[in-house]
Write a structure and sequence with these properties.
The protein has helices at 6-9, 20-23, 36-39, 41-48, 58-62, 69-77, 81-89, 95-101, 105-108, 121-135, 158-169, 186-189, 198-211, 227-233, 262-273, 296-308, 343-346, 410-415, 443-446, 451-470, and strands spanning 150-154, 173-178, 214-217, 236-239, 259-261, 288-292, 312-317, 350-353, 355-363, 366-378, 381-384, 390-393, 396-399, 438-440. It has 488 residues and is of the alpha/beta class. The chain has a five-stranded parallel beta sheet, with helices on both faces. Helix 11 links the parallel strand 1 (150-154) and strand 2. One of its GO terms (molecular function) is iron-sulfur cluster binding.
């Protein structure tokens, strides 16, 4: 155990973001560079000391990766950061990603949170890995010998990267295919720079290349390389294509110029923030922006619009406003139903709850307003409140309503894999699809989920593929295809 009385005497203290007026002038991370671990080291040590080292550490179960949280908290408290980094990497290939992007279900399941504020697990995690990179402790781990087996991984998001790194280290020859010009999937072009600077992604990709993973970017699999080509060239194929088939809003005025999907807007903004010229870029500068959807993607649009100089930003959500504290319907250790305020919300804008969009109106083919109505939730759905219709000015509308599964691409058709009623790829208990030798990892099989689930599935799929190719169990497998978030 770290500090035996830490959770009694030390209050929770999270990381302090940069001032709003400062961070809105750039695209750098909200939290201070060069990393929480260097800037707030004494505070991080104290916060790690709040960990109770519980007899049954529910944080392990809240996190699908099974991160050894009490162990690395204790090691940080004892100033053994290098071993803490080793324990962190024992279960998580990319803690620098999860420490910045995961909403931390581990903290919701923290035993301290039963009666007090949870341990700042995310802050400790990202501090460990930032220090590990600073000190040069993160080095390539190439295999001692190579097998004669080859694997193709389609998609370079967190699930695909986890599959590739695990299988490369097991000695297989792994090629990762990515249709974008650079590897990283949504980590690169879907996540704004202010949430995770791409230098964190690039240095991990450099490690993977040094270990032997091959990256083939700018390749549209299903077109440049067919499903038949993959099956003839490789001993196994892993589909880690994500759930990028976005949910649309087919209402009057949808065709108007200025109504866009969030994932049309965010990748362009990311490229622009990194210094690229983006012809015809969708921008919020000087515009009244409406974001439809109250989740993380909507918050990413919000922070992006602020930095582009929007005249106003309003985020709409069909659900009623959540309570300020954990709701009784989601008791500990479940992920709590409660109001969450991201760094983007702290920067401005309005949030409007319990409303539904009826139509977009425009002039000369361009959107100028959005008509909404207040709704009440009933057992049969959402019912409009009579007389509550109103218009909001809108020069740019961004649809951030989630995703419904993987894109129905040529590759899916060529491989002949089966889809379920939700549109996700069917798989068995070993993550293998209905086509032998073809596996699926992450959101493409699970549906839209968290980054920790993507990495956990990537590790588990790597174990399944390795078992298929070698006949032995050598790699860790933290989750099964049917596992779901912690519930009571």
């Amino acid at each position: 155990m770290a500090d035996p009385r830490g959770f009694l005497k030390t209050p929770r203290q999270g990381a302090t973001p940069r001032p709003v007026e400062e961070r809105l002038r750039d695209w750098n991370e909200v939290y201070p560079a060069p990393g929480i671990g260097r800037t707030l080291l004494p505070i991080i040590v104290e916060q790690a000391g709040r960990c109770m080292d519980c007899g049954i550490p529910f944080c392990h179960h809240g996190c699908p990766l099974g991160n050894l949280i009490p162990e690395w908290n204790d090691l940080v408290w004892r100033d053994d950061w290098k071993v803490a980094a080793e324990r962190l990497h024992a279960t998580n290939n990319f803690p620098e990603f999860t420490g910045r992007l995961c909403p931390a279900p581990c903290e919701a399941a923290c035993v301290v949170a039963i009666a007090d504020d949870a341990v700042t697990i995310k802050n400790v995690e990202v501090s460990i890995i930032d220090r590990a990179f600073d000190e040069g402790w993160v080095a390539p781990l190439p295999p001692e010998r190579l097998t004669d087996r080859t694997v193709a991984v389609i998609g370079s998001g967190p699930a695909g990267l986890a599959v590739a790194q695990q299988l490369t280290r097991a000695g297989h020859t792994v090629a990762v295919y990515e249709r974008a010009d650079r590897a990283g999937g949504l980590l690169r072009y879907g996540i704004p720079e202010f949430k995770m600077e791409k230098r964190h992604l690039d240095r991990r990709l450099d490690q993977m290349r040094a270990e032997g993973t091959i990256f083939r970017t700018g390749v549209e699999v299903g077109v440049a390389v067919t499903g038949k080509d993959l099956r003839s060239r490789y001993d196994a194929v892993v589909l880690a294509v994500g759930a990028t088939d976005w949910r649309d809003l087919p209402i009057p005025g949808r065709e108007l110029d200025g109504v866009h999907q969030a994932m049309e807007y965010l990748p362009q903004a990311n490229r622009s923030s990194l210094g690229e010229t983006v012809p015809g870029q969708i921008t919020a500068e000087g515009k009244h922006v409406i974001i439809i959807g109250g989740g993380d993607t909507g918050a990413d649009c919000l922070g992006t619009a602020h930095r582009q100089g929007a005249a106003s930003v309003t985020q709409l959500e069909i659900m009623p406003e959540p309570p300020g504290t954990r709701h009784t319907s989601t008791p500990w250790p479940m992920w709590p139903l409660m109001l969450r305020t991201s760094s983007a919300h702290e920067e401005g804008g309005d949030r409007v709850y319990a409303v539904s969009t009826l139509e977009f109106t425009g002039d000369d083919g361009k959107v100028t307003a959005l008509r909404l109505v207040e709704v009440e939730r009933t057992p049969s759905g959402f019912e409009p409140v009579p007389g509550s219709e109103r218009d909001l000015p809108a020069d740019l509308v961004l649809l951030a309503m989630g995703f419904v599964g993987p894109e129905k691409s040529a590759l899916i058709e060529q491989l002949g894999v089966e889809l379920d009623a939700r549109g996700t790829i069917v798989r068995d208990g070993s993550f293998e699809t209905t086509i032998p030798g073809v596996f699926v990892a992450g959101d493409a099989g699970r549906g839209q989920s968290l980054i920790v689930w993507a990495i956990a599935e990537g590790r588990s799929v790597a174990a399944a593929v390795d078992r298929k190719l070698t006949g032995v169990d050598r790699l860790p497998s933290p989750v099964s295809p049917t596992d779901r978030p912690l519930a009571v």
